[in-house]
Write a structure and sequence with these properties.
This protein is mainly β and 477 residues long. The protein has four helices and 33 strands. Strands 25-26-27-33-32-29 form a six-stranded mixed sheet, with no helix packed on it. Strands 28-31-30 form a three-stranded antiparallel sheet, with no helix packed on it. Strands 1-2 form a two-stranded antiparallel ribbon.
C-alpha cells in the first residue's frame, strides 16, 4: 500500500512537471517570435501587425509633407498628390474618433491579395466633418509606393530615374534609391537655390599662376618662361640659357632670359642674334616706304610709280599724265592715280541710251525700251589709297534738280558684292559714299550709285545712275 501511494505520488509529480514544461515552452515561443522592420508582434492575435509610424513618431515628416502610413513603413508625400486636404482651416474641438481594432494578417511572406484596412466612412464621428485628418488612400496594389508588382509576384523597385518620372531639375542628377530617388549634383558643382552651379575653384587660389575654370573642374597653367610641376598646380622657372639661345652672351632672368652682345654689335629684333648697328631698325618712320641699311648709314627707296622726295625719306607720286610718260593715244584720256595711270576710252553709250555729253548717257522717256531703265548714267573716276583708314567719306552724290513734293532715295545698286561701301544720306537731296572696310590694291572697282526720285503727287518714280570707277593703288600713300 505504501508502494502504491508512492507510485501515485510520483505519477502526480510527473504530470505536474510536464505541465510546467509545456507552459515554459509556450512562453518561450511567444517571447522568441520576431517580426520584420515596421511590424510588431501582437500576443493577443498571435501575429505581426503594422506599426503606424505617423501616429507613434513625433513629426516624422518635415515642411509641407504629409505622412502616409504603409505596411512596414511610411511615406512623406507632398500634399498636392492626394485629393483630400490634409489639414482643416481651423482646429476642431471634436474628440478624436475611435476605430475598432484591426486584425492584420501576417504579411511577412508577401501578399496574396490586395490589403485594404477597415477605415470608417467619412462622417462616421460625433461631429460634423469628423473622420480621419489624413487622406484616405485606397491600396489597389499589394506594393507600397516606389515599388511595382513583378512578373514573379514580388514587389520590385521602380527606377524613377530611368522612367524619367522624377522631379529633379535639369541641372541635377537623379540617383535611384530603394523605393524612391534623390537629386544630387555632380563633382565640381554645388546646390544653390535648388540649382546645380559650377564651383569656381580659381577663386580659392588652387593655382600658383594661371587658373582656368571649366565646368565641374579647373586647369592650372604657367606664364611664358615657366613649366608646370608634377603637382599640376605650382610653376618653376625655365633656365633658357642652358639651351644656348643667344649668339654671344646669355643672362637668365626669372621667367625669361636676356641676350647681350659684344661691343660694336646690337641686339637684333629676334632678341637672340647680334647684328651690325642697323639704323633702319631704330624706327619704322625713317622712310615712308623702304629703308635699306648701309655701313654707317641708310637710304630710302620708293615703289614703281613714285620717286624719293627732296627730304630723302618721303615718296611722291609720279604723274605720268602731266610728264607725258604714258602710252595713251590721242583719242584716249589719261587718268593719273597714286602709283600709276590708266587710259580711258571715249564714252560709248549702249542702246537704247544716247550720248548726252562726254561723260553722260541718257535714255529718253519717249522710248518704250527706257521705261524700266535709269533716266541718265553719269560716269565718274577717282583714286583710292590701299589700306586707307575706315570709316571714310570718299564721294558725295546730290540731286541737281528739285521738284515740289518729291523725295530722293540713295542706294548702291551694284558693284558692292564685298560690302566695302555703304550710302549715308546727309540731307533730303544728298548722300555720301562711305568706305566701311579697308581695300587692298591694286584693284579697280565699279559702283553704280542710284538716286531714285519719288513724287507721289504726280505718281512719278524715276532714277539716275552715277557709274563710279575707283582705282585702288597698291601702296598706302
Amino acid at each position: 500500500m505504501l508502494f502504491e501511494l508512492r507510485g501515485l505520488s510520483w505519477s502526480t509529480n510527473k504530470r505536474t512537471l510536464s505541465f510546467l514544461i509545456c507552459i515554459i515552452c509556450c512562453i518561450h515561443c511567444g517571447r522568441s517570435q520576431t517580426c520584420t522592420d515596421g511590424f510588431t508582434y501582437d500576443r493577443r492575435a498571435r501575429q505581426c501587425i503594422d506599426i503606424d509610424e505617423c501616429r507613434t513618431l513625433s513629426d516624422p515628416c518635415r515642411g509641407d509633407m504629409q505622412c502616409i502610413n504603409q505596411n512596414g513603413g511610411y511615406l512623406c508625400i507632398p500634399r498636392g498628390l492626394y485629393s483630400q486636404p490634409y489639414a482643416r482651416n481651423s482646429p476642431r474641438s471634436n474628440p478624436e474618433p475611435s476605430y475598432p481594432e484591426e486584425s492584420y494578417p501576417d504579411r511577412s511572406l508577401g501578399y496574396s491579395e490586395p490589403f485594404i484596412p477597415n477605415v470608417p466612412p467619412a462622417g462616421a464621428g460625433t461631429g460634423p466633418g469628423s473622420g480621419p485628418s489624413y487622406p484616405i488612400v485606397s491600396r489597389t496594389t499589394p506594393c507600397i509606393l516606389g515599388y511595382t508588382l513583378g512578373a514573379d509576384g514580388t514587389c520590385v523597385d521602380v527606377d524613377e530615374c530611368e522612367a524619367e518620372s522624377h522631379q529633379c531639375n535639369p541641372t541635377q542628377v537623379c540617383i535611384n534609391t530603394a523605393g524612391g530617388y534623390t537629386c544630387s549634383c555632380t563633382e565640381g558643382y554645388w546646390l544653390v537655390g535648388g540649382q546645380c552651379q559650377d564651383i569656381d575653384e580659381c577663386r580659392y587660389g588652387y593655382c600658383q599662376q594661371l587658373c582656368a575654370n571649366v565646368p565641374g573642374s579647373y586647369s592650372c597653367s604657367c606664364s611664358p618662361g615657366f613649366l608646370l610641376n608634377a603637382d599640376s598646380r605650382t610653376c618653376q622657372d625655365v633656365d633658357e640659357c642652358e639651351t644656348n639661345p643667344c649668339s654671344h652672351g646669355c643672362l637668365n632672368t626669372y621667367g625669361s632670359f636676356m641676350c647681350t652682345c659684344d661691343e660694336g654689335f646690337e641686339l637684333a629684333s629676334d632678341g637672340t642674334t647680334c647684328n651690325d648697328l642697323d639704323e633702319c631698325s631704330f624706327s619704322d618712320f625713317l622712310c615712308q616706304h623702304t629703308c635699306v641699311n648701309t655701313p654707317g648709314s641708310f637710304s630710302c627707296i620708293c615703289p614703281p610709280g613714285y620717286y624719293v622726295y627732296e627730304d630723302g625719306r618721303s615718296c611722291e607720286d609720279h604723274n605720268e599724265c602731266e610728264s607725258g610718260n604714258n602710252t595713251c593715244t590721242a583719242a584716249q584720256v589719261c587718268f593719273n592715280f597714286q602709283g600709276g595711270y590708266t587710259c580711258l576710252d571715249p564714252l560709248r553709250c549702249d542702246p537704247p541710251y544716247i550720248e548726252l555729253s562726254e561723260n553722260q548717257c541718257m535714255c529718253s522717256a519717249e522710248n518704250p525700251a527706257c521705261r524700266e531703265r535709269p533716266f541718265t548714267i553719269l560716269y565718274r573716276h577717282m583714286d583710292l589709297s590701299s589700306g586707307r583708314s575706315v570709316p571714310a567719306d570718299i564721294f558725295q552724290m546730290q540731286a541737281t534738280t528739285r521738284y515740289p513734293g518729291a523725295f530722293y532715295i540713295f542706294q548702291i545698286k551694284s558693284g558692292n558684292e564685298g560690302r566695302e561701301f555703304y550710302m549715308r544720306q546727309t540731307s533730303n537731296i544728298s548722300a555720301t559714299l562711305v568706305l566701311a572696310r579697308p581695300i587692298k590694291g591694286p584693284k579697280t572697282i565699279i559702283l553704280d550709285l542710284e538716286m531714285v526720285t519719288v513724287n507721289n503727287v504726280i505718281n512719278f518714280r524715276g532714277s539716275s545712275i552715277i557709274r563710279l570707277t575707283i582705282f585702288v593703288s597698291e601702296h598706302p600713300f
